[in-house]
Amino acid sequence: MAKLSVEDIKRESRNLRGTIAQELRNSALFFTPEAEKLLKFHGIYEQEDRDKRKTDRQNDHHQVMIRAKLPGGQLNADQYLAMDDIAGHYANGTLRITTRQTFQLHGVLKADLRETIQAMNHALITSLGACGDIVRNVLVCPAPAMNAQQQAVQEFAFKLNEALYPKTRAYHQIFLDDTELIDDSDIIEDEPIYGHTYLPRKFKIAIAYAGDNCVDVYTNDVGLVAIFGEHDELLGFNLLAGGGMGMTHNNEETFPRLADEIAFIKPEQVIEAVTAVVTIHRDYGDRQNRKHARLKYILHDKGVDWFRDELANRVSFKFEAPRSVPPFAVYDHLGWHVQTNGLLYVGLHVENGRIADRPHERVRSGLRAIIERFNPAIRLTCQQNILLTDILPEDRLAIEAMLTEYGIRTVDKISKIRRNGLACVALPTCGLAITEAERVFPQVISEFEDALDRLDIADANIMARMTGCPNGCARPYVAEIAFVGRSLDKYTVFLGGNPNGTRLAQKFLDLVHITDLIPTLTPILRYYRDCRHTDEAFGDFVMRVGFDVLHQLVGDEAVKSAVGD
Ligand code: SRM
Ligand code: SF4
Question: Residues 547, 447: one domain?
Fold first, then answer.
């Protein structure tokens, strides 16, 4: 039988049901390829433990990853503790904060999948729509709002999530009510926004305040930049469209792209305008070629003017030209801060988002103990970190003592290069990983710290990111330095993004072995130390000096072997 395309599978799935319910009941250790594709819409990825697959070929190592959907990265203490319990009971004993403000569970067995989803549902956490060709988790600045206007902006993450939520009852029927097999599924819900084939590809939305790009707003399919007036009143949003990171090595038809500024819209126009953009993607996205199916390619191929006209035709109001906004900075919201209600919040660095216990840093146990005792609200950040909010000022000392007790380092004890770093999951769970990322990045950062130390610029505020393949899950192409998995233990090095996430980095060297990454960059770091302008960021320095000079610095041999002369 000919292999069904993803479009066929969606079309024939009866709104994402397919054979998932039946397959959950059989004794197979993994799903059919068709069910596996549909499971993504339910926030579930079938994976294999690639370490075990390599070392133990006798046994099956299939497992699933579950991604929660948490708009704005917000959850309460009970929900956090429930996820922590679930991680211990059904998953691999870790919680993974993602670059889109949510949690992933790794290592859940097929046999435990329904119970795991039910346990999440019990804590009022869903995974529906966290993956798949649909609107994903909506991002917004996670820091507690400073005023009612910021609060209104944050609430748009929930409003958009609700407006763009799929109508299918498949998730409930399959995982929660157990009615999918009993119900007459001829009654298929209407999906007014998505239709029965949903979107051609994933769709991502982020909301930023003008001046704070902590969500990397330009890398999203749709970005909203909130603009406030003289008296802090919310005037509206610049709507951006067409950002995305994914690319494939040696395929020039794929590329990262920053979103374009399309229009200024008023708060009451947000839902209508964003929904209209989603329908443009639905109607014009490439359903033949998934590598070319993101909204960014529509903007690239048809042009921004075409897009603006198409959007104008789909909304009931006239929009204005985008407004000028102050330059962005990126605030990671780490450390202690006072909220406007007098309470405190503390942002804690979680290396590459992995909440786990290690001998000297018992992050999972420590967070659990603090959250159990002090009941803070929780916000996850797009830099894979965690904020504990609504803390009584008198509890600060006790929390600090507990952080020390569990070996959780506060931000003052972490170098800037480590603090700014991001790495994607990669091995052993990601099926697309070419190289390591999360597991090796801490060591690469340690080497980076040593190099900066030797150069006497230990405090350099540089942003480096690593991914195990070019898909760009840690948004490497907006970093000042990026290491992108290329072949076994070798990386493509990109340089020249800026610290505020508004410029793309460029490919600088190819196929650099992991052990050569920092030694290769050291002459450039030395040159930066000696020749930078006052307060000049590393990425800006790179672009000012130019790649020709920098290639000379790293030496002909490195360039020849890396770029392939
Ligand atoms: Fe991603 C696919 C992990 C954020 C672009 N991403 C994957 C999969 C599901 C691999 C797969 O398809 O089999 C990875 C699962 C690994 C694992 O074992 O957990 C995966 N992506 C992640 C996370 C967990 C990385 C992290 O370390 O935090 C992030 C989860 C976000 C979330 O909570 O929703 C994650 N992925 C991103 C981002 C960053 C962002 O959205 O801000 C991007 C770049 C932005 C974009 O979408 O363009 C991103 N992921 C991709 C792509 C490339 C898409 C493309 O347009 O080409 C893929 C591959 C695909 O979709 O075919 C991918
Ligand atoms: Fe996997 Fe590649 Fe994404 Fe890393 S960037 S998580 S290796 S798909």
Answer: yes
Element spanning 402, H or E: helix 396-405
Each residue's pLDDT tens digit, 156-204 = 999 999 999 999 999 999 999 877 766 555 568 999 999 999 999 999 9
Q: Are residues 409 and 287 in the same domain?
A: no
Does residue 516 fall inside a structural domain? yes
State whether the beta carbon of 170 lies less than 6 angstroms from ligand 1. no
Q: Which of 282, 311, 331 is the last residue of a domain?
A: 331
Residue length of the chain? 565
Could you say which of 289, 304, 331 is where a domain stops? 331
Tokens 């072995």 identify what position? 513
State how many domains the chain has: 4
Is there a domain that residue 272 lies in? Answer: yes
Contact indicator for 193, 25 with CB cutoff of 8 Å: no
The secondary structure of 263-298, three-state, reads: EEECHHHHHHHHHHHHHHHHHHCCCCCHHHCCHHHH
Domain identity same for 454 and 433: yes
Please state the φ and ψ torsions of residue 382, each to the nearest 5 degrees: -75, -5
Yes or no: say if 15 and 168 are a contact pair by the CB < 8 Å rule. yes
Nearest CA to 487 out of 249, 247, 246 is that of: 249
Q: Which domain holds residue 236?
A: 199-331
> Do 97 and 165 form a contact (C-beta atoms < 8 A)?
no
Ligand nearest to the CA of 50: 1
Q: Which atom, in ligand 1's list, is nearest to the CA of 206? A: 42
| 3-state DSSP assignment of residue 412 | helix
Residue 27 in tokens: 């004794």
Q: 354: buried, middle or exposed (CB in 10 Å: 19+, 13-18, 0-12)?
A: buried
H or E stretch including 222?
strand 222-228
Element spanning 239, H or E: strand 234-241
Residues 226 and 340 in one domain: no
- Are 323 and 350 found together in one domain? no
Are 536 and 471 contained in the same domain? yes
Give me the catalytic one of 96, 473, 486, 503: 473
Question: What does pTM read for this prediction?
Answer: 0.97
**Three-state DSSP class for residue 389:** strand
Nearest-CA residue for atom 27 of ligand 1: 424
pLDDT in tens, 527-543: 999 999 999 999 999 99
